[in-house]
Amino acid sequence: MSEIIELNVGGVSYTTTLATLLQDKTSLLHELFGEGRESLAKDSKGRYFLDRDGVLFRYILDYLRDKALHLPEGFRERQRLQREAEHFKLTAMLDCIRGERDARPPGCITIGYRGSFQFGKDGLADVKFRKLSRILVCGRVAQCREIFGDTLNESRDPDHGGPDRYTSRFFLKHCFIEQAFDNLHDHGYRLAGSCGSGTAGSAAEPKPGVDTEENRWNHYNEFVFIRD
After folding, report:
1. pLDDT in tens, 170-197
2. What sequence ranges are listed for the domain KCTD8/12/16 H1 (predicted)?
3. Helix, strand, coil % (nearest 5) of the chain?
C-alpha cells in the first residue's frame, strides 16, 4: 500500500501512493488501481496515463489524502471539479462540493457606478477610456462583506448595526467594475438585470481639471446580481 505511483493526468505529472488512490473503495480510482492496473495505458516515461483534467486532479488527490475539501479563495472551477468528482465516482467529495454551495444563503446585491469617458484632442472621435468615479455596493451587510472582503469601503455607512441589516452606502476601494463582477461570480451570484442612463452636463463652468466634453457625457449604470 506504500507503493509509489507515478501518474500523467492530462499531461500533468503527479506522484502519490497506492494507498491514497485506493482510499475510497467505491471510486473509479479504486477500480483502476485495485485490480485493473495492468490494463492502464502508460506514457513514454512509464507513468500511468489518465485522460482527464490534469490541473483539477490535484484537488482529487488532496481530498483523498485529507478526507476534506480545501479550495483556494476565489476558486472558479467548481462545476468542472464537480464533473471530475462525478467521473471518478467520489460520492463523498461530491457531497462536500454540493454542501459548500448549499451553505451559501441566497441574496441580492446591486452594483452601481457613475462614470464618464476620457476624450482626447479630437473630442468624440478620440475616446480614450472609461472613467469611473466610484463603484457603489448595495445589499445585506454580511453578504457584501463576504463577497468583497478588504476591498469594501464602509467609511460612508453611518449605521454600524448588525450584519443582517441592509445598506446602500458601501463602495469599493478600487474602480475596476470587472473585478467586482468576478468577485460576485466567484461567490455564486449571477446577473439578473441591469439598466443605464445618460446625464446631461451642467451648462455652468466645470470644476477645475474637468474636461467640458467629458462633463457632458456622464452616465450611471446599475447591475443586479442574485444568488438562488
Report:
1. 999 999 999 999 999 888 899 999 999 8
2. 107-227
3. 30, 35, 35
